[in-house]
Amino acid sequence: METLNVIKKSIVITFASIILACGAETLAAIVFIPAFTAGWPVVGVPDYTINLQSDDEGLESGVIFGDESNHPTDADKQFNTLDGSFNGLNIEFTINRPNDVKMKYTGKMIPISDENHTIIRMELNSSEGALVLGSE
User: Fold this and answer.
1) Residues 58, 14: one domain?
2) How far apart are CA 29 and CA 37, in angstroms?
3) In this structure, are 64 and 77 located in the same domain?
4) Which in 21, 43, 129, 131 has the greatest CB count within 10 A?
5) Who has greater pLDDT, 124 or 118?
6) Can you give the pLDDT at residue 25?
């Protein structure tokens, strides 16, 4: 019986040590499972939308695909396909634009909460600059 208690204590101490070593954000990213919606408005650019989809929705990591559409002033940013991946809260995708230009975006997905993994915002960066998807 005493051996069993020592084993239980060791497991609790090990798990607590992992949480402290990784930090809460890292641990949340390890167990995070995103939920996507299709159309993402680009903050600050009316009518410009990035459409994201995944056959791996509900999994911790997977592949995404979609397109960018409806840019109000830049014809090169309309109806271009994209593909990429996500892993926990991390996301990256490449938009395939005219003249063989490939624009890669990387960043973080922001969920409603640690318990509700519905994504409400994505904060991305590329060589074109920052791009925020979601509500203002």
Assistant:
1) no
2) 19
3) yes
4) 131
5) 124
6) 47
Same domain membership, residue 41 and residue 103: yes
List, for residues 106-118, the tens digit of each pLDDT value: 999 998 888 887 8
- Whether 109 and 66 map to the same domain: the answer is yes
Cα distance between residue 41 and residue 51, in whole Å: 9
In the 8-state DSSP scheme, what is residue 77?
G
Could you tell me if 32 and 57 are in contact, meaning their C-beta atoms sit under 8 angstroms apart? Answer: no
In Å, what is the CA distance from 32 to each residue of 2, 69, 83, 88, 127?
Answer: 36, 29, 21, 5, 28
Regarding whether 54 and 8 lie in a shared domain, the answer is no
Q: Are 27 and 60 in contact (CB under 8 A)?
A: no
Q: Cα–Cα–Cα angle for 113, 47, 85, nearest 5°?
A: 50
Give me the CATH number covering residue 101.
2.40.128
Q: What is the pTM of this model?
A: 0.73
Domain total for the chain?
Answer: 2
83: containing domain: 33-134
Tokens for 24, please give them. Answer: 């809460």
